[in-house]
């Protein structure tokens, strides 16, 4: 039976340090994102024990609790209500989405329960550890020699902290803010995408002909104005006035731009798409900040908005729309050419590298590309290929589950994380199983490569598989599938890719991914005595 959302919220709040420790609240498709005053007050073991919690991610300035799609959208308002009820001096002024970088105070001292901050202290090498090998955190409280899941969880926490340190570069922080522009749009993209898919089925069947024009209007309305929403969110994320960002981005989709000629070329409404809107709103934010730096306060309310819209609007018309239009066209042409010409190879490379890109924080650069393809072609052909990385992850986890059949703690972790993994929420499997073990992460990438190559091969044959929205993955992507063939053919190709990813991820992990692990001991855990090593050093246990 599903835990009530109010109960989940009430259980989470004290485990993150109570209302006084919460600075900001936001959520994306799967995660409750909290800005905390002191991460040392977080009880990670308690959070992991909650039935609704699928995983934990300490990334940059936010502490993220993975609850899964749907659940997070219901738990967040309940969590915000608890904060509001705690009193006016406690908790944040909660926002539905992140509006910029979190305060510096949210970068907190070391957590007591395994989540380490970016500035963790250096440790000396434990006896017998290899020079240059990653050091390990202390064994979690209550984790005995047979508690492999607890040891791997501690190892996963260290790897997440290391990833946060690597990802705190100016480029990756900028890409993260770009992602924050598009993440709030995902629910609308999904809803409109599902309606568009349903409408396509009705049109192909020739039924309910009086209803299909209305469904077309409902599904297409958001996409017709997506540039305005992108502009609004861009200004919000980068510190400008959101409505001014929407105003300058609206120039891109205004029908009257068809009367404007640039370099002998007449502009078309929507030219430049989301990239043009993003650039326009970003420029408008900097123009607004520049105006506020010198305009007298008495004239600010009149002069600053006027100059921001005027100057940015003219630059958008005479430079950004033309340039972004050429760039958007090149993205669409390149994606189509890549999969139609080198489909199998391109799919193999994309499927294999997507998980490492996630670890490096570079996958966020793909979000504007997806949005551009959806705006141009009605679907993105890249997302189904990249979704194969999750299939490889599921196959690898299943192999670990079957192979280490006596390790009850690890099998319990996998059982709890597999449903989310099948639906495209991969963090619990990545940080709880494959990445701490080492080799299974690599063999999971091999499964993703095989699934991507499968879909890419059919693209070479002219059967394109796309998604009308971004966000969902795995089995959850089926309602959003689209392409240049019938829905049945498109779904069959995607299903074949998933099955290929599952199978290759399983086989690669079974034969190659677990060979570096020591045999299991009588208690079901990994037997370090067989190697003559101390029994409870997670980094040595998981070294592959």
From TrEMBL:
Chain segments annotated as transmembrane: 181-202, 208-230, 237-257, 302-325, 337-362, 382-404, 416-435, 441-461, 487-512
Membrane topology: Multi-pass membrane protein
Highest taxon, organism lineage: Bacteria
Active-site residues annotated for this sequence: 28 (phosphocysteine intermediate)
InterPro entries: Glu_permease_IIB, PTrfase_EIIB_Cys, PTS_EIIC, PTS_EIIC_1, PTS_IIB_1, PTS_Sugar-Specific_Components
Any GO BP: phosphoenolpyruvate-dependent sugar phosphotransferase system
Domain PTS EIIB type-1: 6-89
GO MF annotation list: kinase activity; protein-N(PI)-phosphohistidine-sugar phosphotransferase activity; protein-phosphocysteine-N-acetylmuramate phosphotransferase system transporter activity
One Pfam match: PTS_EIIB
PROSITE patterns tied to this protein: PTS_EIIB_TYPE_1 (PS51098), PTS_EIIB_TYPE_1_CYS (PS01035), PTS_EIIC_TYPE_1 (PS51103)
Listed GO CC annotations: plasma membrane
Signal peptide limits: none
Official protein name in the record: PTS alpha-glucoside transporter subunit IIA
């Amino acid at each position: 039976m599903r835990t009530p959302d109010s109960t989940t919220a009430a259980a989470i709040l004290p485990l993150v340090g109570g209302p006084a420790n919460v600075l900001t609240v936001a959520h994306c498709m799967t995660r409750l994102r909290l800005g905390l005053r002191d991460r040392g007050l977080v009880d990670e073991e308690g959070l992991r024990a909650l039935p609704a919690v699928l995983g934990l991610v300490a990334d940059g300035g936010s502490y993220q609790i993975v609850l899964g799609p749907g659940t997070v959208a219901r738990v967040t308002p309940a969590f915000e209500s608890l904060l509001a009820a705690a009193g006016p001096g406690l908790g944040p002024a909660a926002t539905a989405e992140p509006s910029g970088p979190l305060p510096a105070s949210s970068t907190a001292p070391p957590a007591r329960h395994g989540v380490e901050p970016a500035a963790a202290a250096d440790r000396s090498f434990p006896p017998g550890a290899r020079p240059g090998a990653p050091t390990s955190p202390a064994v979690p409280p209550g984790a005995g020699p047979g508690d492999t899941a607890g040891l791997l969880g501690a190892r996963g926490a260290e790897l997440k902290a290391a990833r946060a340190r690597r990802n705190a570069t100016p480029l990756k922080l900028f890409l993260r803010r770009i992602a924050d522009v598009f993440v709030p749009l995902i629910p609308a993209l999904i809803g409109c995408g599902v309606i568009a898919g349903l409408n396509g089925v009705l049109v192909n069947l020739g039924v309910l002909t009086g209803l299909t024009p209305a469904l077309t209007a409902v599904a297409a309305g958001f996409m017709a104005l997506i540039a305005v929403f992108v502009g609004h969110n861009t200004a919000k994320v980068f510190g400008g006035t959101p409505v001014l960002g929407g105003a300058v981005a609206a120039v891109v989709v205004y029908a009257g731009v068809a009367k404007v000629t640039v370099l002998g070329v007449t502009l078309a409404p929507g030219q430049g798409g989301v990239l043009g809107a993003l650039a326009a709103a970003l420029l408008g934010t900097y123009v607004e900040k520049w105006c506020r730096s010198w305009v007298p306060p008495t004239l600010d309310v009149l002069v600053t908005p006027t100059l921001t819209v005027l100057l940015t609007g003219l630059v958008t018309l005479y430079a950004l729309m033309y340039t972004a239009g050429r760039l958007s066209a090149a993205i669409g042409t390149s994606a189509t050419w890549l999969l139609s010409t080198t489909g199998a190879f391109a799919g193999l490379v994309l499927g294999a590298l997507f998980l490492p890109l996630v670890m490096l924080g570079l996958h966020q650069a793909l979000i504007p590309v997806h949005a551009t393809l959806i705006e141009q072609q009605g679907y993105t052909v890249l997302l189904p290929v990249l979704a194969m990385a999750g299939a490889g992850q599921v196959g690898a986890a299943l192999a670990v589950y079957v192979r280490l059949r006596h390790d009850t703690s690890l099998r319990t972790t996998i059982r709890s994380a597999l449903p989310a993994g099948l639906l495209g929420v991969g963090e619990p499997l990545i940080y709880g199983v494959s990445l701490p073990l080492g080799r299974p992460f690599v063999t999971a990438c091999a499964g993703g490569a095989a699934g991507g190559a499968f879909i890419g091969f059919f693209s070479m044959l002219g059967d394109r598989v796309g998604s009308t929205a971004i966000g969902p993955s795995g089995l959850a992507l089926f309602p959003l599938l689209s392409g240049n063939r019938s829905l049945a053919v498109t779904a069959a190709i995607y299903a074949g890719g998933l099955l290929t990813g599952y199978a290759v991820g399983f086989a690669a992990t079974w034969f190659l991914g677990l060979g570096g692990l020591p045999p299991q001991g009588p208690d079901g855990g990994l037997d370090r005595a067989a190697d003559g090593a101390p029994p409870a050093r997670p980094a040595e246990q998981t070294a592959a």
